[in-house]
Specification:
With 94 residues, this protein is mainly α. The chain is built from two helices and no strands. The protein has helices at residues 2-66, 73-93. The radius of gyration is 31 Å and the shape is rod-shaped. The termini are far apart.
């Protein structure tokens, strides 16, 4: 009878240890899941910000393009480079 009680205690302790380790694994998985969700949220926010900046840059380029006759040759070079960067940025977004 004593041997059976000891066996039950040992089995109980083993089950408790397994349940505890499973709980720890689930907690770590939950923490990782929350971290991933936070990072995804930040990335979406950054993407929205970048899209807004890209639109603002395109509008600014259009405004400058409308007044291109008033620009110096150096300013025209800067404008052309800005257009190149904006076009390159649009291609990388796709």
């Amino acid at each position: 009878m004593t041997g059976f009680s000891i066996a039950v205690i040992i089995v109980g302790l083993l089950i408790f240890a397994e349940l505890y380790s499973i709980r720890e694994i689930l907690n770590r998985q939950h923490d990782k899941s929350e971290y991933v969700q936070t990072v995804e949220s930040k990335l979406k926010s950054l993407q929205i910000d970048l899209n807004e900046q890209s639109e603002a840059l395109n509008e600014l380029i259009e405004m400058i393009e409308d007044n291109k006759t008033l620009l110096s040759p150096r300013d025209v070079e800067i404008l052309n480079h800005s257009k190149y960067v904006a076009i390159k940025n649009k291609k990388s977004e796709v």
